[in-house]
Amino acid sequence: MGKTLIEKILAAASGEKEVRAGEIVFARPHMILSHDNSAAISKIFFDMGAKKVWNPSRVFIALDHAVPPPDWKKAQNHKIIRNFVEEQGIENFYEAGTGICHQVLPEYGHVIPGVVILGSDSHTTTHGAFGAAGIPIGRTETASVWALGETWLKVPETIKIVLNGRLQENVYPKDVILHVIGRLTADGASYKAVEFHGDVVRSMGISGRMTICNMAAEMGAKAGMVPFDDVAREWFDSLGITQYDIVLPDEDAAYEKVYEFDCSQITPQVAKPHKVDNVVPVSELGEVEIDEALLGTCTNGRVEDLRIAAEILEGKKVAKGVRLLVYPASRKVLEEALSLGIVEKIVKAGGEVAVPACGPCLGAYGGVLAPGERAVSSANRNFKGRMGCSEDTGIYLASPATVAASALAGRIVVP
Amino acid sequence: MILDGRIWVLDDDDINTDVIYPGKYTYEPFGPEEMAKHALEDFDPDFASKVEEGDIIVAGRNFGCGSSREQAVTSLKFAGIRAIVAESFARIYYRNAINQALVVIDCADASRFARKNKEKVHGSRARIDTENGRLEILGEEFSFVPLSGKALEIFDAGGLVEYTKRRLASS
After folding, report:
1. CATH superfamily of A270-409
2. Domain for residue B131, yes or no?
3. What is the DSSP letter of A240?
4. Residue A386 in contact with residue A363, Cβ under 8 Å?
5. From residue A28, how far is each of A14, A110, A116, A166, B153 by CA, in Å?
């Protein structure tokens, strides 16, 4: 019986010849990611009696969660991190404004196929788009990895999700993954690795693959992965990265479950408050007026996402009483969107373009909701209180196209 | 370890880390006692003022899903919670709990029984034998798989901080 992608990746990361689902291994990461939580992690690190990180070239830190810092305490948090980076000689540090960790890490060449990326952020699954295994862990565990260079992991079973068919014109990777989550539910992939296969995935660009792997976290997945192919190869070529081993799942790999979807039937989808698996077609949602439209974040903040939204917004105005907040996923994304005229279209339509960062997705600063308000968002979570206020608020998750069309209409509409 | 504590039945599935510990506090430099004041704030605003040392939570499926924020464990631990029993746990939450040596018990039967008899179970006492995998609620006995292997080693060390400290000291 053949091996799944995660079995091969974890074997390589733990120096074993082969491993099987259910085994415990000690995995060494290609990169360990953290962000604004690095100050808290550094405190735990020193509490452990550690003095130096095991390998400063394997530690990645990007400041993104409170950017620019809304108050002095959060500014001080960044300062503690900068000092730590300096003192430890951390080689992969990205200043506030460079972008969101999950966008910056691949953009600057810190992921290659077939490796383990550990991250102190639940959306570390995003890096599966590159044929790697992005595995989220907590702060204490990250501190321990900084100290020891490894952590224990159970080799998970794998769920194979086959996305077949051809997407309708107004349907995007976000709609596909929301539909999948609606069917599999919020714990449908709990403790499991997910492999995405099928025509729809093969013809999907890196940006869309990052969206579906990012959202795999919302099914409880330990990792969500797209096996390496020519699309990934082209992406790595464009960065000048050619030194890597190609790791692919075997044809006869043992999957715990296989789900097939005919994506030709999928229409634009929306996840209603307060659970990500509370998914319906936008056409069946009924009347939902909105106060805020959030475009961007690590889920849908890439050039492709902004371009789709800009095409819808071009020459029009955001509805009265609606604020359209735009958070590009990185400075590189913003620069490209500027040079392509995308930003101009968004701003002229009334969009408020912010510094590349996490923004109001996690409700820690700017762009939060007031009591009684509703938002349509291209981010990944709609939990109660997620965007800073829990008093009679509601977040509806959708594609960038649905977000843009809804911003114009003042209510959630099919793009 | 034998635990005996008052039960809170949290009658829901997918209780996520945002309602356990809201995102707006995640980058505030709070100590654990301050975190405890916000425990479960967006699930039950009265929880933090009524919880007592030694209390035990019984909840539904996929407890702790969402963000990897560890404060969702720390806040409950410092609020006095000694164990969480659930039908199932989200993966990162489960690891975070073991890393902080908070008892987490996967026991679908006990969870379903407690939710079905919520009126009687809420506020009653649970008795837990962590080593032998035994749990008693209102005279009903339930069994669960006790921690073993690497997870038990970390838990027994008092959490991952102590475990790592020992490994660093021995290397």
Report:
1. Aconitase, domain 3 (3.30.499.10)
2. yes
3. T
4. yes
5. 6, 15, 7, 39, 20
Cα A413 to the center of its chain, rounded Å: 24
Please give the torsion angle defined by the CA atoms of residues A121, B64, B88 and B13, in that order, rounded to the nearest 10 degrees. Answer: -130
Q: Is the ipTM of this complex over 0.90?
A: yes
> Encoding tokens for residue B106?
């996967």
CB A104 within 8 A of CB A62: yes
Handedness of CA A275, A278, A282, A288 (dihedral sign): negative
Q: What is the DSSP string of A256-276?
A: SEEEEEEGGG---EEEPTT-T
> How many Å apart are CA A230 and CA A208, to the nearest integer?
15
Cα(B75)–Cα(A410) distance, integer angstroms: 39
Determine the 3-state secondary structure of A62 from DSSP.
Answer: strand
- Beta strands A92-94 and B140-143, pairing class: unpaired
Bridging pattern class, strands A158-164 and A374-377: unpaired
- Give per-10-residue mean pLDDT for chain A (415 aa): 96 96 95 98 97 98 96 96 98 98 98 98 98 97 98 96 98 98 97 98 98 98 98 98 97 97 98 98 98 98 98 98 98 98 98 96 91 98 94 97 98 98
Chain B interface disruption, residue of A37, A101, A144, most B CBs within 10 A: A144
CATH code at position B21: 3.20.19.10
Tokens of A12: 């390589």
User: Which residues, listed in sequence order, are joined to residue B91 by a DSSP beta bridge?
Assistant: none
Closest CA to A254 of A131, A157, A161, A154: A157
Q: B-contacting residues of A 65-84, CB under 8 Å?
A: 65-66, 73-74, 76-77
Question: Could A383 and B24 be called an inter-chain contact, meaning their C-beta atoms sit closer than 8 Å?
Answer: no
| Burial environment of residue A129 by CB neighbours within 10 A (0 to 12, 13 to 18, 19 or more) | buried
3-class state of residue A40 by DSSP: helix
Which regions of chain A carry the CATH code 3.30.499.10? 5-261, 270-409
What does the alpha-carbon distance between residue A309 and residue A348 come to, in Å, rounded to a whole number? 13
Report the distance separating Cα B40 and Cα B105, nearest Å.
Answer: 19
**B27 contact residues in A (CB cutoff 8 A):** 36-37, 65-66, 74, 77, 364
Lookup result for tokens 């902004």: A306
Chain A residue numbers with beta carbons less than 8 Å from the beta carbon of B24 are 363-364, 368, 385, 388
Tell me the C-alpha distance between A272 and A255, whole Å: 31
Homologous superfamily assigned to A5-261: Aconitase, domain 3 (3.30.499.10)
Using CA atoms of B28, B31, B37, B38 in order, give the dihedral in degrees to the nearest 10. 40
Instruction: Name the residue facing A138 among B27, B41, B99 (closest C-beta).
Output: B99
Domains contained in chain B, number:
1
* C-alpha span between A12 and A356 (Å, rounded): 34
d(CA A55, CA A53): 6
